[in-house]
Amino acid sequence: MKYFRFSILSFILASFSCTHQSSEVPTIALSAVPSFAQNVKHELEVLLKDYDRYFTDSLKITQTPGAVVVIVKDTTVVFCKGYGVRALDSPEPTDAHTVFRIGSLSKGFAGALTSILMQEHRLNLSDRVTRYFPEFVLKDAAQTRRIRLTHLLSHCTGLPYHTHTDMIENGYQLRQMLPYIKKVKLFGKEGDLFCYQNAVFSMIGEVMYGATNQTYQQLLVDKIFKPVGMKDASVTYEAMMLNSNKSYPHAPYNNSWIKSKISDKYYNAAPAGGVNASGADMGEWLKLLMGSHPEILNNSALDSLFVPRIRTHSERRHFSGWSGPKEASYALGWRVLERGNGQVIEAHSGFVNDYRGEIALDRKAKIGICVLFNANSPMAQRCIPTFFERVAAANGL
After folding, report:
1. Do 367 and 361 meet the contact criterion of CB atoms below 8 Å apart?
2. Which domains does the chain have, with CATH numbers?
3. Least confident residue range of 135-149, 212-226, 306-320, 348-362
4. Exposure string (b/e) for 326-343, b if CB count within 10 Å is 16 or more?
5. CB 16: neighbour CB atoms within 10 A?
């Protein structure tokens, strides 16, 4: 698709007082959170006010219709705010409970759900895919037998880049794709090469059904959404359309944006890109990833979730907004950025149906952020690196 282009120099350097007002969704009052030391509260308040100004200004510059930002420190949501409108043809403001499609940020949920089922001793990363999903067949029978769950979740089955993503977009169900996947010439041995997938990654849902006799949707709702408190989240097109507080996608048009339709594409590959969620939901999700619910995901399971499984040399562009030397890997539904300063960032991007999402956390510093847009805003590339640059400049965080 054609991307909305702006002057990079003006985007980075511009700073002015905007007349565009964000929706009135207040930040969390840090003074009401006794777990933070006074100096940490002060530094956080300064950081959040600074980032709020940056985000508001950038939204104006890029004319991005709407967005929501949520920030978590330790296991506390310290900022959750909607910006702009749900749709350009409507005055309804974006708020903390406005639902967006999150695209490939969904992959992190698939990894976490796998870890939860591992805790329950219902499956294991080293298990063969065919143990639970015998219909899964590649062109090479020996390689089929060697494919493990870890290969599905880290995009290294040996299949070429984006194998039959086109079939997902054309509405095929996963099981309907199996005869076509079987005919694809393999790109390499399993575990050797990173080749990003949607269709094959989503086969983890079929594996889970084989292990539990429950659908991926049932498992996601029962084991993550409900117990964590993600009250707006869902994983179907129907649920998205029935939600009265939803954001609409916007496509680039004449150097601006135009509202487009919500599509049912990728709900047929829910583990790869089918989750709908609000900023409030993503705050609860970040809290879980920070260790707030050890009864759901214990520390060992969380650590395993983010272990780099394979280098992603061909996809360093996903971290092009970050300065300095870096090495990129893929874990279980998560990208891992190892920076030259010793910092490790766990992150992912999502793009579907003209929605864009970004999520990142520094588990060592126990701080994370998620930003959801209702357009493929040029802000997306820099909004999270900018946040962590401000975190690094703050004292006491």
Report:
1. yes
2. 8-111+216-393 (3.40.710.10)
3. 306-320
4. bbbbbbbbbbbbebeeeb
5. 8
Please say whether the beta carbons of 184 and 93 come within 8 A: no
**Residue 108 contacts residue 349 (beta carbons within 8 Å):** no
- CA 129 to CA 150: how far, in whole Å? 9
Residue 4 to residues 63, 64, 66, 250, 257, Cα–Cα distance (Å): 10, 10, 15, 11, 8
Q: Which residue has the higher pLDDT, 309 or 26?
A: 309
End-to-end CA distance of the chain: 40
- Give the Å distances, CA to CA, from 164 to 107, 168, 302, 308, 391: 17, 7, 31, 25, 40
- Tell me if 123 sits within 8 A of 88, measured CB to CB: no
Judge whether 165 and 177 are in contact, CB under 8 Å: no
Query: Strand order of the sheet with strand 76-84?
Result: 76-84, 66-73, 367-373, 355-362, 344-352, 335-339, 326-330, 310-311
Residue type, 184: V
**Residue 318 pLDDT:** 76
- Mean pLDDT of the region 361-368: 96
What is the rounded CA–CA span in Å between residue 379 and residue 12?
Answer: 10
| Residue 36, pLDDT score | 64
Region of 32 please: left (phi>0), alpha (psi -120 to 50) or beta: alpha
